[in-house]
Every structure is written in structure tokens, then in C-alpha cells.
């Protein structure tokens, strides 16, 4: 280290420019070369480095500005999406409520319709039963009447002789004749 500081201290004591030779002190020559290169770089590179840093700064600022704009747009879209979601949820709730009330109304209509249909079927069944009863009663009456008539004819045929039979027929014919005169 002492050699390095000595080389800087003795810079002013160099021999005049008349002689040219090699400096064998590696540390002194490297430091001088480095200081010259750094000085040239600082002198000439300051503008380039400043421009590079300014460009980089502008790109970073533009990126931040674009990010802020995108963020604001994203927030705006998010708010719109939330508003649409709220609206759709309200509509879904309304549809759900309307759907439930419609289902209840249809259920009541179906129950009422089924009740009316059952009532009509009950009435039809009762009418059918009544009709069948009347038919059965009429058939029994006809059979009873036929049997009574056959019994009466049998009794009349066994009890009546020809003369009595002849008088009964004449009396009936006479009654029919009187009835015919009354209707005419």
C-alpha cells in the first residue's frame, strides 16, 4: 500500500517528457490507467448514463401510470359487476318468490280440480248405483208380475169354465167399446 500512495505523491516529480521508458511498478500504472479510464467514463459517460437513467425513470413512471389506470378500470368493472350481481340476485329472489307462489297456486288449483273430479266421479257412481238398483227393482217387478200373472192365469184357467170365460171376454169387450165411445 505504501507503494500506491508513493506513486500518487510523486506524480509531480516525474522526469521531463524527454525520456520514454517502461514503468515497472504495476500497481502505480494500473491505478493511473484506472483513474484515467474512470475519469473519461465519468466525463463522457455522464450524459449517456443520465439519459439511460432518465429513460428508465420515464418507463417506470409510465408503467406506474398505466398500472394506476388499469387499476381504476378494474375497480370500475368490479363495481359494475357487483351491481349486476346484486341485480341478478334480486331478480333470482323475485323469480324464486314468484315461483313458489306460482307453485302454491298450481298446487291449490290441482287439489281443487282433483276434488271436483272426485266429486263428479262420486256423483256418477251414485247415479250408476241408483240406476242399477232401479233396473234390478224393475226386473224383479216384471218377474213377480209375470209369475203372478201366470199364477192368476193358471188359477183362472183351472177355475173358469167355458161359459164363465165367454162372459168375461164379452164384458171386457163391452168395456173397451164404452171407452172407445168416450174418447171419440
Automatic annotation (TrEMBL):
- Location of this chain's protein in the cell: Membrane; Plastid, Chloroplast thylakoid membrane
Ranges annotated as spanning the membrane: 26-49
Does Thylakoid count among this protein's keywords? yes
Q: Which Pfam families match?
A: ATP-synt_B (PF00430)
Q: Which GO terms describe its cellular component?
A: chloroplast thylakoid membrane; proton-transporting ATP synthase complex
Keyword vocabulary terms for this entry:
ATP synthesis, CF(0), Chloroplast, Coiled coil, Hydrogen ion transport, Ion transport, Membrane, Plastid, Thylakoid, Transmembrane, Transmembrane helix, Transport
Q: Which InterPro entries match?
A: ATP_synth_b/b'su_bac/chlpt
Other known facts? In plastids the F-type ATPase is also known as CF(1)CF(0).
Per the record, the similarity remark reads: Belongs to the ATPase B chain family.
Record's protein name: ATP synthase subunit b, chloroplastic
Q: Which organism is it from?
A: Limeum aethiopicum
The lineage, from the top, is:
Eukaryota, Viridiplantae, Streptophyta, Embryophyta, Tracheophyta
Encoded by which gene? Answer: atpF
Amino acid at each position: 500500500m505504501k507503494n500506491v500512495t508513493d506513486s500518487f505523491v510523486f506524480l509531480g516529480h516525474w522526469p521531463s517528457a524527454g525520456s520514454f521508458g517502461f514503468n515497472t511498478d504495476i500497481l502505480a500504472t494500473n491505478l493511473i490507467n484506472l483513474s484515467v479510464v474512470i475519469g473519461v467514463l465519468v466525463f463522457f459517460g455522464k450524459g449517456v448514463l443520465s439519459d439511460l437513467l432518465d429513460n428508465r425513470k420515464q418507463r417506470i413512471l409510465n408503467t406506474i401510470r398505466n398500472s394506476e389506470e388499469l387499476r381504476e378500470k378494474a375497480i370500475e368493472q368490479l363495481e359494475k359487476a357487483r351491481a349486476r350481481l346484486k341485480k341478478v340476485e334480486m331478480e333470482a329472489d323475485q323469480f324464486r318468490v314468484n315461483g313458489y307462489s306460482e307453485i302454491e297456486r298450481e298446487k291449490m288449483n290441482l287439489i281443487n280440480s282433483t276434488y271436483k273430479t272426485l266429486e263428479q266421479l262420486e256423483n256418477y257412481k251414485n247415479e250408476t248405483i241408483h240406476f242399477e238398483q232401479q233396473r234390478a227393482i224393475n226386473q224383479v217387478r216384471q218377474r213377480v208380475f209375470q209369475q203372478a200373472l201366470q199364477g192368476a192365469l193358471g188359477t183362472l184357467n183351472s177355475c173358469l169354465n167355458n161359459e164363465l170365460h165367454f162372459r168375461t171376454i164379452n164384458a171386457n169387450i163391452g168395456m173397451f167399446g164404452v171407452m172407445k165411445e168416450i174418447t171419440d
